[in-house]
Amino acid sequence: MRRNKHYLYVPADSQRKINSALKLKLGAVILDLEDGVAPSQKQTALENIISNADMFTATELWVRLNQVPQAESEFASLSGISNIAGFWIPKAEPTNELIALVKKISESGKQVGVLMETAKGYVKRQQLLSIMGITHLQLGEYDLAGELGIDLESEVVTRAMASVRLETVIAAKANSIRDVVGAVSANYKNLDQFNQSCKDLAALGFDSRACIHPDQLAIADTAFTPTPDQIAWAEEVFARFEENDARGAGAYVEKDGSMADAATVRAARSILEKAKS
């Protein structure tokens, strides 16, 4: 199964930016029909996706639709394009309309990502993420902050958001969501800050990061890839666990004096799966 470490947003109304994206070595690209496109340019953006989709051969191609119900007609226009791997649905909340759209997308053989970026979507995250067919989740922090009237750059909000992010990961993992994607960072020029935020998100259990500029891609790739030390630790854990398991020991003491058991092995397995993908 393919695992991406970054998703680059590209406004689909800009042929110039689409051309630039085609020259990049990308894990995944999201051609955007929603916030990155002015209302007067929505049709142009849709037509650009139709005419350019087949050119993304080495990159996993996604499309961010507009909100339901507009998303329904957009999906109908794009559903027959085999090169589109999946669709993102913004401002996702567990409504009958969203459930119906997820079902249509999933039954067409495409992956379905939802952006959890409203207060209601966050409060009802368990109900939202249990909808059959949803495979990916992205936390939309800027839209959520706008609705709540909070400043993401303030110190108190920065501390509080760690809990929001962790709750998001827990809800996603509880519902077997394949990929939990960290929110974009609008300040694409501050790469040191972006690097630290990627490391923080990886530590909280996020799998990848949404990006808005090519300079962010390599940073995200590194942050969401296990380090050689982590891989070596995981491999050693497996080796020692097998030795102790053969002797009938379910738990044992590591070289550093810490206790290890099946939970330690699960952590090691997660590291090796990420490294392999």
Can you describe this structure in just a few lines?
The chain has 277 residues and is α/β, with parallel strands linked by helices. The chain has helices spanning 15-22, 42-52, 70-78, 96-107, 119-123, 125-129, 141-148, 155-174, 191-203, 217-223, 228-246, 262-276, and strands spanning 6-11, 28-32, 60-64, 84-89, 111-116, 136-139, 179-182, 208-211, 252-253, 259-260.
Strand order of the largest sheet: 1-2-3-4-5-6-7-8
Tell me which CATH architecture of the largest domain applies here: Alpha-Beta Barrel
Shape: globular
Task: Determine the CATH topology of the largest domain.
Answer: TIM Barrel
Overall pLDDT score: 91
List low-confidence stretches.
Answer: none
CA(first)-CA(last) distance: 7 Å
What is the assigned CATH homologous superfamily of the largest domain?
Phosphoenolpyruvate-binding domains
Radius of gyration: 20 Å
Strand content: 15-25%
The beta-strand count equals 10
Summed up, the helix count is: 12
Please describe the biggest sheet, giving its number of strands, its sense, and whether it closes into a barrel: 8 strands, parallel, barrel
Judged by helices, strands and strand pairing, the structural class is alpha/beta
Number of domains: 2
Helix and strand element order:
EHEHEHEHEHHEHHEHEHHEEH
Helix amount, in percent?
40-55%
CATH class of the largest domain: Alpha Beta
